[in-house]
Specification:
Layout (H helix, E strand, L loop, with lengths): L1 H29 L12 H64 L1 E2 L8 E2 H13 L7 H18 L4 H17 L4 H12 L4 H11 L5 H9 L3
Antiparallel strand pairs: 1-2
Helix pairs in contact: 1-2, 2-5, 3-7, 5-6, 7-8
Length: 226
C-alpha cells in the first residue's frame, strides 16, 4: 500500500545517504597520503578507517532503520486496532439487526375473527392504516399535531413492543454514529438498516421522532436521510 511504499522509499534514501558518506570519508582518507606499494599494508590505519565508518555510518543507519521499524510497528498496531474495532462493530451491528427483525416478527394483529392474523411488517402496515383513518384532513399544522396524537395513541395501545422496537432502532444508529469508523462506512451500515424498513415503518419513525420519546432519534433520521 501507500504507507509501505513511502517506508521503502525512505529506507532507500537513508541507505544511499550512508553509502555517500562512506565514499566521502574514503576520499578524505585517501587524499594527501604517500603510497609505496613495496611496503606492507598498514592494517592499523585501515582498521581505524573501518572502525570510524562502522561506528558513525553504521550507527546512523541503525538509528534510521530502528526509527522506521518502530514507526511501522505503530502503524500496524493502529491498523490492527481498527480491524478489531470493525470486527466487534460488525458482530454487534448484525446482532442488533437480528434482534430488531425478531422484535418485528413478534408483532401481530387480528383483523377479523374469520381472517388469519397479520404478523410482522404486515401488522405494522395495518396499524399505520388504522392510525391514518383516525384523523381528518385539515390545516397542515393542525393535521400534523393530530397525526402525532394518533401515533401516541397507537404507541400507548402497544406498549408491549413499541418502546422496545424504537429503542432497538435508536441503539443501532447510535452505535453507527459513535463507533470509530470512516464516515463512508457509517453511511453504508445506515443504508443496510434503511433497506430493512418499509414505507409504513418510515412513516411511524417520522411521527415517533416528533414526540418526546423519539427526540434523540430525530438527529439520526436527518443525518442518515431516513
Amino acid at each position: 500500500n501507500l504507507r509501505k511504499r513511502k517506508l521503502m522509499k525512505s529506507i532507500k534514501i537513508a541507505i544511499i545517504v550512508c553509502v555517500g558518506l562512506v565514499l566521502v570519508f574514503l576520499v578524505l582518507f585517501l587524499v594527501n597520503r604517500q603510497y609505496d606499494y613495496s611496503w606492507p599494508l598498514a592494517t592499523d590505519i585501515v582498521g581505524h578507517y573501518g572502525d570510524f565508518v562502522g561506528g558513525f555510518v553504521g550507527s546512523l543507519l541503525s538509528v534510521v532503520l530502528l526509527y522506521y521499524t518502530f514507526r511501522s510497528q505503530i502503524s500496524e498496531s493502529k491498523e490492527n486496532a481498527k480491524v478489531y474495532i470493525k470486527q466487534q462493530f460488525n458482530e454487534t451491528f448484525f446482532h442488533l439487526l437480528h434482534q430488531y427483525n425478531s422484535i418485528v416478527g413478534t408483532i401481530s394483529v387480528k383483523v377479523e375473527n374469520d381472517e388469519p392474523a397479520l404478523h410482522g411488517k404486515e401488522a405494522l402496515h395495518y396499524y399505520v392504516q388504522q392510525m391514518q383513518s383516525e384523523f381528518d384532513k385539515g390545516e397542515f399544522y393542525e393535521n400534523r399535531k393530530e397525526a402525532v396524537g394518533c401515533f401516541m395513541n397507537l404507541y400507548a395501545a402497544h406498549e408491549d413492543f413499541m418502546p422496545i422496537y424504537y429503542r432497538t432502532l435508536y441503539r443501532i444508529f447510535d452505535m453507527i454514529e459513535t463507533t470509530d469508523i470512516d464516515d463512508s462506512e457509517k453511511v453504508k451500515y445506515a443504508k443496510i438498516v434503511r433497506s430493512q424498513l418499509t414505507d409504513s415503518e418510515l412513516l411511524l419513525l417520522r411521527y415517533n421522532s416528533m414526540t418526546t420519546y423519539g427526540r434523540k432519534m430525530c438527529k439520526y433520521v436527518v443525518n442518515y436521510n431516513l
